[in-house]
Amino acid sequence: MAPERFLAVEGVNMSFGDSNILTGIDLAVKKGEFVCLIGHSGCGKSTLLNLVAGLLKASAGTILLANKHIDGPGPDRGVVFQNHSLLPWLTCFGNVYLAVERVFREPKPRLKARTHTALELVGLAHAEDKFPHQISGGMKQRVGIARALAMEPKVLLLDEPFGALDALTRATLQDELLRIVARTGSTVVMVTHDVDEAVLLSDRVVMLTNGPAARIGEVLEVALPRPRERLTLAHDARFMELRARVLEFLYEKQAGKAKGAPALKVA
Amino acid sequence: MPPTTPPHPAARREIPHQAPVKRAPAPEWLIAAIACVAGLAAFLVAWSAIARFSGRIPDPMAVGAAAAKIFADPFYSKGPNDQGIGWNVLKSLQRVGIGFGLAALVGIPLGFMIGRFRFLAGMAAPIIALLKPVSPLAWLPIGLLVFKAANPAAIYVIFICSLWPMIVNTAVGVRQIPQDYLNVARVLNLSEWKVFTKILFPAVLPYMITGVRLSIGVAWLVIVAAEMLTGGVGIGFWVWDEWNNLKVEHIIIAIFTIGIVGLLLEQALMLAARRFSYGA
Questions:
Q1: Is residue A79 helix, strand or coil?
Q2: pLDDT at position A265 over 70
Q3: What is the C-alpha separation between B273 and A103, in angstroms, rounded?
Q4: Is the ipTM of this complex over 0.85?
Q5: What phi and psi values does residue B245 have, to the nearest 5 degrees?
Q6: What is the 8-class DSSP label of residue A60?
Q7: What's the whole-number mean pLDDT along residues A36-43?
Q8: Minimal CA–CA distance to B236: which of B104, B63, B95, B111?
């Protein structure tokens, strides 16, 4: 396996019934790379992520992770959903433990230690015994990240994880995600519709055209050095330039067919 | 010594503004308690009035005196047809418990299956729709026919009437499980057993408890009527027996006893429901 094709999406098409969502998607993600998928809402970026997660089955094409064909969900891919999806009857600890217990065949104390470490990594060791309704939205999302990371997945899949949070919490979590990924060296694919978020976090921004039958329109290399600092980047000319490139794609090249447009039906 | 001047009229007017007498509103529980007591008092007054004018219905005092006698020795036993009210209530509760327990044993798994499999739901829908509105007492002759004894027939009636709410609510609960939770199960690749114990069961539990609450309410209503028909020991039969003895005080005592026991059952299940409902 070539290391630059750690995760490989090859010629993937996806249709529901006779509506074509994605066509001819080819994407290779390197090990340890952070890739953002960006596009207008409804373009199919979440569908692509769900294909990688194995929650959906591609109509055509293959997806390989570490040379293994993906044909269903599995613990080698840690998924973080937009709406945290924590089980309300389990504590933060219980929610993470559920995942840990499934993946690792180890004695209980080891599993508990892993759970604790994962929650520590997202800065929630103090809230282990709290139930999801007792903590804030940002904290819930962190537990979701801890749950995904605790499984030591080959790739972390984030589906607009910060979409439902307020701007300040979102910024804090982005910074924290940068720090966590720097520490763990995880391979990440993240769906977002936030341009700043995409440029701040990614090594590459993959821009999808508007649906139906969305394709990969452009891929933007973000060669900004790490560690990245939100405040310094805010005045960084390269950051501004990259940000402008994404904005141009979204609001000039893909503006005409934007979300309000009726879906064209191909008979 | 300077002459004392009367306070300026304006100043006098200021006083209430400077020190407004703020009376804290009565706490809500106090108002509720007062309303409750007032309601009961109005009830007793109306009852006394009806008792005075009808001449046949005993007034609260007479019923109170009879109750004091009955509850002084609730657990006496003078043969199968003359037992204390305590035994009668316990016997009825036992029937409800058994019938109801069997209904849970059958209804909850059935509800799970109907909720999980669309085809089964389609199969069950016409049967449930047809049988649910039938008065449970209509089943009593069938029970007598099959079991050839009064006691199992009464239990069977309780079983039938508790069954429907249990099935329907469990099935609804299963269908209401958010897709998010099932996605979690899928991405974590949980085993069927884990999915059941960690996701399905806790997610459905609040609905199940609602089913149980509805069932037990109906069961407690029905047992009184069933026992009137089947006889033996039980609060329903006791009511009928006291009617035959023309002891109207005792009938009224029985009505209150049935009401209080029903209320306690309901409250106990409400408590359970609160314990198992999770903040969103």
A1: strand
A2: no
A3: 33
A4: no
A5: -85, 0
A6: E
A7: 89
A8: B95
CATH code at B74-275: 1.10.3720.10
How far apart are the C-alpha atoms of B257 and B239, rounded to whole Å?
11
Spatial neighbors of A13 by CB under 8 A, at least 6 apart, are: A20, A22, A23, A24, A25, A58, A59, A60, A61
Q: Both tokens of residue A153?
A: 């997945």
**What is the average per-residue pLDDT within A185-189?**
92
Position A1 confidence tier, pLDDT thresholds 50, 70, 90: low
Which of A104, A121, A153 is a domain's end point? Answer: A153
B202 touches chain A (CB under 8 A): yes
Flag whether residue A136 sits within 8 Å of chain B, measured between CB atoms.
no
With an 8 Å Cβ cutoff, are A102 and B194 in contact? yes
CB within 8 Å of B120: residues ≥ 6 apart: B113, B114
Q: B136, B175 in Cβ contact below 8 A?
A: no
The pTM assigned to this predicted structure is 0.74
- Convert B112-145 to b/e letters by CB count within 10 Å (16 or more is b): bbbbeeeeebeebeeebeeeeeeebbebbeebbe
What dihedral do alpha carbons B254, B257, B261, B263 form, nearest 10°? 110
C-alpha A145/C-alpha A183 separation (Å) is 14
Q: How far apart are CA B108 and CA B99, in angstroms?
A: 14
Residue type (1 letter), A105: R
Q: Return the axis-axis angle of helices A108-121 and A167-184, rounded to nearest 10°.
A: 130
Provide the residue ranges of all domains of chain B, joining segments of one domain with +.
74-275
Q: Do B189 and A75 touch (CB under 8 A)?
A: yes
- Averaged pLDDT of chain B: 85
Whether chain B has a CB inside 8 Å of the CB on A53: the answer is yes
Say yes or no: A53 and A179 in one domain: yes
pLDDT tens readout for residues B146-187: 998 888 999 999 999 899 999 999 999 998 888 888 888 888
* Tens of pLDDT, residues A156-180: 999 999 888 888 988 988 998 999 8
Quote the domain boundaries for residue A241: 33-59+155-260
